[in-house]
Amino acid sequence: MVGKNTILKNIIFVVLLIILLTFVLLPFVTMLSSSFKPDNEQNTFPPQIMPENPTMEHYKGVLNPDIFPFLIYFKNSLLVAFLSAGIGIVISIFGSYSFARLEYTGRAAIQRGVLLVYMFGGVLLVIPLFQLITKLGLFDTRTSLIVTYVVQTLPVSLYMLGNYFRTVPESIEEAAIIDGCSRLEVIYRIVIPLSAPAIVSVFIYAFMIAWNEYLFASVFINSSQLRTLPLGLNQLFYTQHYVWGRMMAASILTAIPVIILFLSIERFITGGLTFGGVKE
């Protein structure tokens, strides 16, 4: 028989879980609902979750280049996010492996020093980064954003991958080296395949940071043709075409790539590829 205390704990747990899910999902549900509501239903009271007369006009408006150049902003965000996340992953793999496996003077100091970047907020770094970007001739270019996002996400990426690399049994690497593999071959053939869940997680983290970032993009980008989606959504507020439904539709379209990316590679995260790497 299940005790009364256990039943009570389960009930409390379920209630708290429902409250948490409601708190987390309600903004997204509201955004999705508003994107399909006609203008005359946006401010009704009491508010309705399901629109009475669903419409696709807001999505058509967002995808209309004369109203909102969504595809241009989407391309810019996708290019910047993928390149910055990809470059950051390559640097993080080699940097993290050196922290986890190699012995050299000052390793501990460098490893701790990397995390010092996170002691400073983005607002404090905007001015010195702007001066550096300007002197390098990178102002109003995608390269300025890619470099900034790589630097911004690198400390956490190095920390996360370094900790994961330490869980990979050294005996596998030692056996590969005895068989004649170089360090680069060990990384490519052993460490990367066994660390795929961590690498994918770090890639998603770096991609999301770059995809949603607004502060640095608003300072470093001036041309309308180079704006990313966060800048484009902000600009939509100040146009004659601004309506709540259209803003919500643009926000939904902005969130879709991240959702698709996560769902498509979720199996790598949950696969636990290091399980069974060494047999007893």
UniProtKB/TrEMBL annotation:
<dbReference type="GO" id="GO:0055085">
    <property type="term" value="P:transmembrane transport"/>
</dbReference>
<protein>
    <submittedName>
        <fullName>Multiple sugar transport system permease protein</fullName>
    </submittedName>
</protein>
<keyword id="KW-1133">Transmembrane helix</keyword>
<keyword id="KW-0472">Membrane</keyword>
<feature type="transmembrane region" description="Helical">
    <location>
        <begin position="145"/>
        <end position="165"/>
    </location>
</feature>
<feature type="transmembrane region" description="Helical">
    <location>
        <begin position="78"/>
        <end position="100"/>
    </location>
</feature>
<dbReference type="InterPro" id="IPR000515">
    <property type="entry name" value="MetI-like"/>
</dbReference>
<dbReference type="InterPro" id="IPR035906">
    <property type="entry name" value="MetI-like_sf"/>
</dbReference>
<keyword id="KW-0813">Transport</keyword>
<dbReference type="Pfam" id="PF00528">
    <property type="entry name" value="BPD_transp_1"/>
</dbReference>
<comment type="similarity">
    <text>Belongs to the binding-protein-dependent transport system permease family.</text>
</comment>
<dbReference type="GO" id="GO:0005886">
    <property type="term" value="C:plasma membrane"/>
</dbReference>
<keyword id="KW-0812">Transmembrane</keyword>
<keyword id="KW-0762">Sugar transport</keyword>
<feature type="transmembrane region" description="Helical">
    <location>
        <begin position="243"/>
        <end position="265"/>
    </location>
</feature>
<keyword id="KW-1003">Cell membrane</keyword>
<feature type="domain" description="ABC transmembrane type-1">
    <location>
        <begin position="74"/>
        <end position="265"/>
    </location>
</feature>
<feature type="transmembrane region" description="Helical">
    <location>
        <begin position="12"/>
        <end position="32"/>
    </location>
</feature>
<dbReference type="InterPro" id="IPR050901">
    <property type="entry name" value="BP-dep_ABC_trans_perm"/>
</dbReference>
<feature type="transmembrane region" description="Helical">
    <location>
        <begin position="112"/>
        <end position="133"/>
    </location>
</feature>
<feature type="transmembrane region" description="Helical">
    <location>
        <begin position="186"/>
        <end position="211"/>
    </location>
</feature>
